[in-house]
Write a sequence for this structure.
């Protein structure tokens, strides 16, 4: 799938570079007037700059950008749309409300529901991961707040991570703290970024890394003052986009294919595994206790 996408998008830079006089004129016009296309729904705001080919995707699911079934569905549809758009070469993923990038999977989707619902939910989580990790676009996470578990996974799926330099913001795969287990593809995604040793320790402890620690361990690539997260993402994106798309895409696919294939070839088994795990009484109890702790902390 990724290889086919790479072939399709091979044309994108050529189209931009060798475009007709009309096209070049349009480009100049774009540079001057910065034509922006918006395709938003009530959970995701997208602004695609036609001059640069960069889309900024802002997650907007208050209060904490939790990844509900509805949100994940909208997310995957939006991503698919951008992936198919030949004018879009880069994606900056961020939160519409600073302080929280994403609180991860919506715990309520994993509590007290039917097995059928859990199956549908997990398929949507898989879909989000396959689309984002397998994207042909340059993907940059502009992490403007805390990012536990599924939120961290989203950031790890991107090619580059820029985080707000605020020790109050933390990122990590904290699943064990909830009494649950990060599945193999969450583990692989993290391991591909920070290596096996850091992943092994962080996953067992369910460690959340405050921003400076996240930088130290390579979980993020750069820390910048909060107000510079978006502009830094834009300038890093401009650098990445100087590389010809087809060469970068084939390289990305070569690096990630083994990891994505593991899930693609085991999707149904992975769903079955999730459903049988999450329906256990002991796991349901752990999640309820965790939610209760969150509420009490607030009080
Ligand atoms: C054998 C192997 C088999 C493996 C099979 C698979 C196993 C299952 C794998 C599942 C993988 C799970 C991945 C996940 O992503 S789980 C989610 C983990 N997320 C968290 O732990 C985050 C929890 N939240 C927080 O830490 C804080 O809320 C946060 C720092 C994000 C924000 O803090 P803040 O103080 O600003 O806000 P509040 O805590 O007051 O929260 C506001 C309301 O939002 C609710 N909330 C928060 N997080 C979630 C969430 N993830 N899902 C649903 N709801 C959430 C919170 O309860 C507050 O609600 P109320 O206002 O109603 O009290």
């Amino acid at each position: 799938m990724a290889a086919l996408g790479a072939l399709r998008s091979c044309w994108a830079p050529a189209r931009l570079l060798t475009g007709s006089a009309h096209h070049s004129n349009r480009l100049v016009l774009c540079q001057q007037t910065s034509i922006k296309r918006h395709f938003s729904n009530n959970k995701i705001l997208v602004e695609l700059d036609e001059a640069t080919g960069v889309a900024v995707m802002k997650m907007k699911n208050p209060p904490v950008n939790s990844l509900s079934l509805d949100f994940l569905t909208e997310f995957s549809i939006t991503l698919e749309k951008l992936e198919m758009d030949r004018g879009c070469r880069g994606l900056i993923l961020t939160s519409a409300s600073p302080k929280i990038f994403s609180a991860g999977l919506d715990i309520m989707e994993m509590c007290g529901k039917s097995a059928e619902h859990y199956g549908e939910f997990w398929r949507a989580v898989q879909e989000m991961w396959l689309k984002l990790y397998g994207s042909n676009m340059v993907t940059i996470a502009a992490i403007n707040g805390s990012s536990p578990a599924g939120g961290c996974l989203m950031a790890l799926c991107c090619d580059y991570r820029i985080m707000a330099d605020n020790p109050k913001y933390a990122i990590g795969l904290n699943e064990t703290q909830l009494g649950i287990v990060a599945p193999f593809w969450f583990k692989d995604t993290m391991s591909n970024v920070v290596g096996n040793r850091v992943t092994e320790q962080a996953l067992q402890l369910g460690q959340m890394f405050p921003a400076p620690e996240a930088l130290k361990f390579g979980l993020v690539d750069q820390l910048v003052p909060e107000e510079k997260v978006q502009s830094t993402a834009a300038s890093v994106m401009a650098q990445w986009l100087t590389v010809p798309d087809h060469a970068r895409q084939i390289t990305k696919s070569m690096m990630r294919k083994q990891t994505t294939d593991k899930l693609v070839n085991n999707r149904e088994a992975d769903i079955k595994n999730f459903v049988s795990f999450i329906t256990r009484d002991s796991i349901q109890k752990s999640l309820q206790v965790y939610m209760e702790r969150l509420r009490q902390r607030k009080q």
Summary: The mean pLDDT is 90. The pocket of L4XM7KOE is lined by residues 63-64, 66, 100, 103-108, 146, 148-150, 174-175, 178, 180-181, 183, 273-274, 277-278, 294-295, 298 (CB under 6 Å).
